[in-house]
Amino acid sequence: MNHTILAKPSEQQLKWQDLEFGMFCHFGINTFCDQEWGEGTDSPELFNPTQFDALQWVRSAKLAGAAYFVLTAKHHDGFCLWPTETTDYSVKSSPWRNGQGDVVREVADACKQEGIRFGLYLSPWDRHEPCYPDKEAYDDFYANQLTELLTQYGPLVELWFDGAGSHGREYDWRRIMGLVKQYQPDAMVFNMGAPTIRWVGNEDGVAPYPCWNTAESAKLSMYTQDMAAWLPETPAWVPAECDVPIRKDRWFWHPNDEHTLRSLDNLLDIYYRSVGHGCTLLLNLAPDNRGLLPELDVNRLIEFTDEIKRRFSNPIAATDGEGDSVLLSFVAETDVNHVILMEDIAHGERIRSYVLEAEQQGQWIELVKGSAVGHKKIDRFETVRTKQMRVRVTASVDKALIRSFAAYNC
């Protein structure tokens, strides 16, 4: 056993990792133009979601068990979903609500009403703003936009800074982080500046295994091999978030695109390889040009999360413990094919390797070997019939602390 100073999460990071599952919403001018990346030239007149219903979005997220909700306040095209003072390229120049609407406000209010934490995406890259080529002028512009969002919409759980399009560009991250610290000190910061959470490195929603909670770097975006330039004060503990759209390769809604909807099996595989690898899953559903989440997408979302609940809501038995071996006993012999382990990560990620075993006829049979446990590790294996199981920690940094050891028959 090595006695080493371990990185540990902040209180805010611990709370965020316990959220496990959130919903992303990409919505904006692209929704009305059948495109993923606008160039900032589409007329605000096109933005008119005549049946817009933020409560329908957020209630769908709540029904699915999502604990937080992240909205694209401004994508790369520069169109703002709130009536910003910084530009006319926003909802106030659209026919929607006669130019008096505020998508960010309505979604923030819906999240508050439904008890879901609210987060915002604000693209640093802006293809519309004329001052973008002038670094100093745009740094002021962006800081002003960010300040509006940080100060007008209540507490934020997460700020999503997308690195796409920003290859070779340096923003004033020290200033940006200062604003976040001043106005939303509890918000997680995604992958840029001095992040407290990092991008997993793909848009497939899956994490490698092991996926440790400590990192010194992460990829900037899908479109370059560059690594994000983090400030020196970035913490050592930077857990990963896995983002993925429910329609393959489609973050925004497109007409006649239902064939891209992910299957239930695909979504379950994503869950096992995101949440089941200790990460947080952020699943995107895109509202359509009516301003509603399509029924097909919502039904698939609920089908997916209902199946997760069916599998994992009621363990056969569960315990906690510490040290090199923790035993889990059942009232009678029973079939088991899944185990969920959770480490008490408040004290750092101590477990470096473990073996999961089942007792049969007085012998311990090896089922699974693993390395990282972290926030959560889901192990599945061929069904075994047993009256007790154990996890043996075969390598650790200081004493292993197991928050939960739970067995299931799915």
TrEMBL record:
Q: Which InterPro entries match?
A: FUC_metazoa-typ (IPR016286), GH (IPR017853), Glyco_hydro_29 (IPR000933), Glyco_hydro_29_N (IPR057739)
Q: Any transmembrane segments, and where?
A: none
Q: Using the UniProt record, name the top-level EC class of this enzyme in a single word.
A: hydrolase
Ranges for domain Glycoside hydrolase family 29 N-terminal come to 15-304
What keywords appear on the UniProt entry?
A: Glycosidase, Hydrolase, Signal
Q: Does the keyword Hydrolase apply?
A: yes
What EC numbers are recorded for this enzyme?
3.2.1.51
Asked if the Swiss-Prot or TrEMBL record annotates the protein with the keyword Hydrolase, the reply is yes
Q: What does this protein do?
A: Alpha-L-fucosidase is responsible for hydrolyzing the alpha-1,6-linked fucose joined to the reducing-end N-acetylglucosamine of the carbohydrate moieties of glycoproteins.
- Family assignment from sequence similarity: Belongs to the glycosyl hydrolase 29 family.
Protein name (database record): alpha-L-fucosidase
Question: Which species does the entry assign this protein to?
Answer: Paenibacillus phytorum
